[in-house]
Design a protein that fits this description.
The complex is a heterodimer of chains A (251) and B (269). Chain A is of the alpha/beta class. Chain A has helices spanning 57-65, 97-105, 112-125, 141-153, 171-188, 199-205, 223-228, 232-238, 245-248, and strands at residues 19-28, 31-41, 46-50, 72-77, 82-85, 159-163, 191-195, 208-213, 216-221. Chain B has one domain (28-264). The chains are: A alpha/beta (251), B mainly alpha (269).
Amino acid sequence: MVRQRQTSLTRDGSIEPMVEVRNLEKWFGEKRILKDVSFDVYPGEILGLVGKSGCGKSTILKILCGLLQADSGSVSMHSEEVGLVFQGSALLNSYTVKQNLAIALRRRKLNKKDEERIIYEKLELVGLRGLEDSYPTQLSGGQQKRTSFARAIVNDPKIIFYDEPTTGLDPVISTVIEDYMNDLEGRLNAASIVVTHQLSTWTRTADRIILLHDGEIKWEGDPEGAMISENPYIKQFAYAKREGPLLDSAV
Amino acid sequence: MTTSARSRNNILRPFDVMFEQFGKCCQLIGQCLILLCRTIGYILRGDIDKTETWRQCYRIGVQSWFVVAITALFTGFAMSLQISRELVMFGADTAIGGVVSLALVREIGPITAGIMVAGRVGSSVAAELTTMMITEQIDALKVMRVDPVQFLVVPRFVAAMLMMPALSVYAMALGLIAGIIIAYTAANVPVATFLDSVKQTILDRDFGTHFLKAWLNAIIIIIVSCAIGLRTRGGAEDVGIATTRTIVWAMTLLFIFNYLVTAVTYAPR
């Protein structure tokens, strides 16, 4: 599926990246998790970070969100408004759906009326209107994920990160979530990074794919290219083959 | 290394283990002091979520009333029975009220409320915050640029500072009622005599010490449980470890500071 995105151009006509990552390195004790990782993400683009478990995808997201410090390298983000959709939704269980969204709005110090308007608007967008007074434990997995979406976009961020947004969901709900991602991208023209294992998620949502292996970028290209590439890493990953370089280092 | 192999090694190296424990202890004290400074900083700036503070007052105060009542009543019964028995033997039964009330105001009231709140509230705060850490709820707050200290610690701290003195006075009052019942039934001391003895024995400064201990208990319980909760990562097992650690540390510090306050305020001059 080829998707058309809006892009913002600089005065000289070049496109200015919203997220710039340069030579990122991260060590956990003796283990090197990220090795010289560099990439850009542009407005209106969804970048898919793929790779097998433990390859450093989520570590990159945590560094970008400020939850972890890189040992070297730099990260530049040209917007302060960042939204993150967590793998496990990470909703505050002792607060209702509405209160979860209100927490994200706290620092804007809005009056009650404006706050409610924004919250209802975002809940409407993800199809959760009517569930605003429910607690996260009363919601299904898909509804929790959509609440997490609504919370991530409540401040209209220009950068959105998705950590395994469809993992653990059934194929139908996964498709709904993927459609929301594409829909939001169209509305907000944000730069997004989606960390995923799911083939359907990166083929249906991403404009560009980066394959990470042992903390290094092994392949970069579009989803269509991933399916026809002769690169042994992406070929093995895209076709979920047992034989290949992705498994050799682990076994 | 497996747990059993680690245990075998640790038995052979007791001083290494003691040194490691000492290091962890210093680390926790440092974390508690930093957390306390940050919490007080927010309170001085007036960054207090009133709705959440009221909610925490209910959780810390109102929901603890029953357990504190039971503990205070039975501690009062046992203590009064012991005191009555000894004083009756010496013919000093009119002093029962004074001795019971002294013990209750100066020591038993604050410590009983402190222990029960440490067990009930401290453990639940540590378990709640650890679970929030494990399930990335704290990370979600950070991404939303909400400081977990301001959002989670400050309301609990303010609520504990408000509710602990109330619980201590409540524990003291119930202990006194227990004392009156025992003095009347076991030593045949009239209620008026008991209360007269209380009035003659208790000084204003005893109440000052009582409230000082209650506030110190509140600080210890909330800061220790939050510091441990906000530093724990891992899985379900770590929730249990954090809870146990909180109770052990909070109660240990409760007794140490209780003694220090007593030593400072009642040391013979």
